[in-house]
């Protein structure tokens, strides 16, 4: 009996030790990998409301950066007829190319310059010329993304105009509430 009891205890320890080493990983639905598309198309609702819709395309370079271009065009009577804004973004979020971002951008735009010439105080002539403006700017914002690839952005910033005459504003705005899809 003295020999059987220690042998039985040692064999039980080996059995428990061997069983404790087996692990099985069970994936839960909440541990899914975020949507991993590399392209985005977006519409800026803020500019749409003022009659200057903005469409954007963004190409994700890696988890922390992206290149894009936004194009605006006037559908109402506002000063700027057309604007193209190429940009580069650096992201600081947990999801790929999402979360808080800092954006560096350049803008190229066409502005209507209206010149009024008055005759005899009551009649006048309007002469409209297109002028070109260009500048560089910064913006900050945040991008939110669903697991199915829908994105929503909130951002704001401004840029400084370096090209054009005195009739063009020295700054251009950069703000928006965008909705889009990553694919």
Automatic annotation (TrEMBL):
Superkingdom of the organism of origin: Bacteria
Identify this protein by name.
Answer: DUF3575 domain-containing protein
Upper lineage: Bacteria, Pseudomonadati, Bacteroidota, Flavobacteriia, Flavobacteriales
